[in-house]
Amino acid sequence: MTIALAASPAFDASIPTSNGYEPITALALKAAMRNFSGGVSVITAGIGDDRTGATVTSATALSVDPPTMIVNINRTSSTWPIIQRYRHFCVNVLSREHQRVAERFSGLDGAKGPARYEGADWVRLASGASALSGALAAIDCEVEEIIERHSHAIILGRVVAISAGSGEPIVYHNGRYGGLDL
């Protein structure tokens, strides 16, 4: 398996030490975490002009019985208060063709709130959250539990609807988006 990466700003925060380990700092942990390759999803929440979302690599299934998703959201993110208010979210699993959507929801271009949805087709789901047309999967969730720890909220969402498609996933590694060649 190889990973092909698209051009985007690279990040190098290596801090060599005599024992081969880096000091335990936020910067060192972020640098280490950039070595993970992860599938990319956009978490959407809210309704109408009171909606936003975030690009994440932290969405995963917690349980299939009952069907439950888990996502970690930074509590300084604009998505956090919207999830708290509306008690719903959708995990939109992105394909390689959705790099622009991933970048837009990451906030790199300065788009906020409903402006993040511009340039793509969206449908409103049973919970009220938005699903990206053509996503590899759209997993509609109602908030079941929120665990606030340190800088993030761990959000458990009971799955209320699923739409699954097909295609090649987009991955994120070391600050860059790419695809998998399996």
Please give a structural write-up.
- By secondary structure, the chain is mainly beta.
- The chain has one domain: Electron Transport, Fmn-binding Protein, Chain A (Pnp Oxidase, Chain A).
- The protein has helices spanning 26-33, 79-86, 99-105; strands at residues 2-5, 38-39, 41-47, 50-56, 60-64, 67-74, 88-93, 122-124, 130-132, 137-149, 152-164, 170-173, 176-181.
- The strands form three sheets. The protein has a seven-stranded antiparallel β-sheet, with helices on both faces.
- 31% of the residues are buried.
- Mean pLDDT is 91; it is low at 7-15.
Summary of the model, kept short:
Helix content is 13%, strand content 45%.
